[in-house]
Design brief:
The structure is a homodimer of 403-residue chains. By secondary structure, the first copy, chain A, is an alpha/beta fold. Chain A contains 13 helices and 17 strands.
C-alpha cells in the first residue's frame, strides 16, 4: 500500500474519551508511516460535505498536544447527528462525500461514534463497495451509555461511571450530616439502558452505599417505590436513591414531566428525580431533594478513568490497524478475558452494531428490583480503575481546542 | 493554664473544607500539649445537649487519618441548624450545654460554621460571661457562599469556585461540539449573594468563557435577558449562561416558577435555569438546556483547591491559638495582603459576624449587568490555585467517616 490520505470524524453525543480515541487514530497513523496526511472533518459528515476539514498531522506535532487532547472532553472535531438515507434512494449526500474524499486523495474514512453513527459507517461502506470505490470505511465505537452490542463495553463508559460513583459517594456524605429524615433522589443518564445507573452499585464497596437503585430495564411502580423508601427510612434517616433518567411505568410512560425529541427520534428526558421527590414528599411528608447529574456525566475530564482513557486510545489505534489490513465496513470492539481483568480486541461488522441497543443483563438487577448484584459490581469495577488528571494551569484544567 | 479538655463541633451547611478546619483544630490541640482531651460533638449543639460526643485524640492518631479527613467532604461530626434563643429568655438549652461541658471538664468550645453558627458562638459566649463560667467559646468560619462579613473570604469557598469553574469549562466544551443554535443555562448556588456565581468569570482566562453571567445583586429582567442572549447568538451559536439560583425580579420574586401543583397540593418548584430555558425556547425558538449544579458544588472533594484546604487547616489551628491566649466570643478571619497573594490572620467578635450577609462589591459586576469585571477575577483566582487530590482506592476516593 503506497502513500495516501485518511480522514477521521466524530459523531453523536460527546464523551470524556472521544478525544482519546481520536488521539489513538492520530498516533497510529503517524507511526504507520503509510499515511501521507490525516485530515479531521469538522462536525462529522455535515462538515465533510462542505469540505470543512483540517490537517491533523500539522496540528498535533508533539506528545504534549496529544496528551492534552486525550484529557479534553467533548468532540474536539465537533459533532453532528446527521443520518444518511438508505442506499438506493437519494444518493446526493453520498456523492458529495465521495467527491470531497476523492478531491483530497483520501482512501480511509474513520468515524468515531455510537450506534447511530455506525449506521453511517455501514451505509457508506455499502455505497463505496457498490460503486467499487477505493475507499475503506471504519467505525470506532464511542458512548457513555455502553449500549453498543458485541463489544464488552464502550470507550467513555468507564470515565462516566467513575464520575457518577465518585459524585454519589460525595452526595452520600453530604446527606449523612443531618439528623432529620430526608430522601435524596439522584438522576443518572441512560435513555433506555441501565449501564450508567449500574455504577451506583460501586459506592457500597467502601462505606455507606446508595440505598435503592432503579434501572430502566424494570417497570417502575410508584407504590412499590414508596414501600421501598419506607423500609429504608425505618432503618436510617438519610436515604439516597439512584434512578435512571429512563425509568418508565408498566404502560410505557416515562416517569418525568417534560420531554421532546431529537432528530434521531430520541426523547430528551428530564425531571424524573423531581417527579419522584414530589411523590415522596406527598406520601411520606419528609424532606426530599432531587439532584440531576446532567451533562457533567459526559464531560467531567478532570476525573477520568485511566483505564478508560488508555483503552480508548488503543481502540483508535486498532481501527487504523484494521484499515491498513484493507478491512472496511467494520468496527474494532473490546473483548474481556476471563479471570483477572485484561482487555483484548476483535472486530464486528458495522451492520451488526448499527441501530441496536444492549440492555443490562438480568443478573445485574437484584430480585427486589431496587438493587444491583455482585455480578454488576464485578463488571463495572475494573473499568473505573486508575486516575489520570489533566494538566492544570492557573487552577483550571488545560483543554486542547482545534480551531 | 493547666491540663483541661476542649470540644469542637460543626454546624450549618457542609462544605469540602469543613473537615480540613476540623483537622486544623485537632492538629493544633495535639501539638499544644495543653489539652488533655479533645472531644467532638455529633450534630453540633443538638448532639452536645444529648452528650453525644466522641474522643477525637484517640480517633485521629496518625497523619494518614488527618490527611484523609482533610479531603473528605461534608461535616464528619454531622451538623445541625439549631439556633439558641436570646439570652434572658428560656435558658434551658444553655444550662444543658454547660452541664455537659462541666461534666466532661471541657473549658474550650470550638464551633465551625457560617453566619448562623456565629450567632450560637456569640450567644453562648455572652451566657458564660454573664454567669462567670470558666469556658471559652471560639467560632471558626465556614461557608461555600463566602458571605461572612469581615473576613476576606471563607473556608470552603475556593474549592467550590474551583469545582464550578472547572465544570463550566467542561460544559463549554460540550456545548461547542454542535452547529445548531443552543442556549445552555447553568444554575449556581448562592441564595442572596453572587460570590459563587463570580467564579464563572474565570473560564474566559483560557479559551472560550461563559457568555453571560447574572448576579443576584442585580434585579433580573426577562426582556433584557432575551436581548442579551440574542446579541450573543448573533455572534455564535453555542451560548452558555451562568446564573445565581437567587436571581430575582425587581418586585422581589425569585426567577423560579411554580409550574404545577401536584395531587397533594404541593407546589412544584422548578429551578431558575429551567424557568429561563423555557423562556428562551418560547421567545427565540432555539434548543435550550438547563443544568443545575446542585449539591456537588459543596461536596466535590475529588477536586479541592489546595489553597482552600491549606487555609482551612490553618484557620482551625489559629482558632486554637486564640483559645490558648484566653480569648472568647471571637472568630479568626482571613486578611489578604496587597500585592502578590498572601494570606494573614486577624480576629473579629462573633457578634459582628453573626446574622450578617456580605454581598459582592459593585465593581465586580460589569456595567452591562451580565458580566464580571477584572476586579472580580483578580479576587477569586488566587483562591482556586493548586490541586490536592484525595487518595483513591479501587477507583474511588477514600473518605474518613467518624462513627
Amino acid at each position: 500500500m503506497g502513500q495516501f490520505n485518511a480522514i477521521v470524524g466524530q459523531s453523536g453525543g460527546p464523551t470524556c474519551a472521544i478525544n482519546a480515541t481520536l488521539s489513538g487514530v492520530i498516533r497510529a497513523c503517524l507511526e504507520s508511516k503509510k499515511i501521507n496526511r490525516l485530515y479531521g472533518m469538522k462536525n462529522g459528515i455535515e462538515g465533510l460535505m462542505k469540505e470543512d476539514i483540517v490537517d491533523l498531522f500539522s496540528f498535533f506535532e508533539d506528545e504534549k498536544s496529544l496528551d492534552a487532547l486525550e484529557l479534553t472532553p467533548a468532540s474536539a472535531l465537533g459533532t453532528c447527528r446527521l443520518r444518511l438515507p438508505d442506499i438506493g434512494g437519494d444518493e446526493s449526500r453520498y456523492e458529495k462525500i465521495v467527491e470531497v474524499l476523492k478531491k483530497n486523495d483520501i482512501h480511509i474514512f474513520f468515524y468515531i461514534g455510537g450506534n447511530d453513527s455506525m449506521d453511517t459507517v455501514d451505509k457508506l461502506s455499502q455505497y463505496v463497495k457498490k460503486n467499487a470505490l477505493d475507499i475503506l470505511v471504519i467505525g470506532v465505537p464511542k458512548t457513555i451509555d455502553n449500549d453498543l452490542v458485541v463489544t464488552d463495553h464502550t470507550p467513555g463508559y468507564g470515565s462516566a461511571c467513575k464520575y457518577i460513583a465518585t459524585t454519589l459517594k460525595e452526595i452520600i456524605r453530604d446527606c449523612a450530616v443531618y439528623t432529620q429524615k430526608a430522601v435524596t433522589i439522584v438522576e443518572i443518564m441512560g435513555r433506555d439502558s441501565g449501564w450508567l445507573t449500574a455504577s451506583a452499585s460501586l459506592c457500597a464497596l467502601d462505606g455507606k452505599g446508595v440505598d435503592l437503585i432503579y434501572f430502566p430495564e424494570r417497570a417502575f411502580d410508584d407504590d412499590k417505590f414508596i414501600s421501598d423508601v419506607k423500609r429504608v427510612l425505618d432503618d436510617h434517616n438519610d436515604v439516597v436513591v439512584a434512578i435512571s433518567e429512563g425509568i418508565r411505568y408498566s404502560d410505557g410512560e416515562y416517569v418525568c414531566h417534560n420531554n421532546s425529541v431529537d432528530v434521531f427520534g430520541n426523547r430528551q428526558l428530564c425531571g424524573s428525580a423531581t417527579a419522584l421527590a414530589s411523590l415522596v414528599k406527598g406520601r411520606l411528608g419528609c424532606k426530599t431533594r432531587a439532584i440531576e447529574l446532567n451533562v457533567p456525566q459526559r464531560c467531567a475530564s478532570h476525573l477520568c478513568s485511566a483505564t478508560d482513557i488508555a483503552e480508548s486510545v488503543m481502540i483508535g489505534s486498532h481501527a487504523v490497524k484494521l484499515a491498513l489490513e484493507g478491512r472496511s465496513g467494520i468496527v474494532p470492539v473490546f473483548v474481556r478475558q476471563d479471570g483477572e481483568y485484561k482487555i483484548g480486541f476483535s472486530c464486528a461488522n458495522a451492520h451488526d452494531i448499527a441501530n441496536k441497543v444492549k440492555f443490562i443483563p438480568d443478573n445485574f438487577i437484584g430480585e427486589d428490583e431496587c438493587s444491583a448484584t455482585e455480578e454488576c459490581i464485578k463488571y463495572v469495577l475494573p473499568l473505573i480503575q486508575g486516575e489520570r488528571f489533566p494538566e492544570f494551569k492557573n487552577g483550571l484544567p488545560v483543554q486542547l481546542v482545534i480551531k
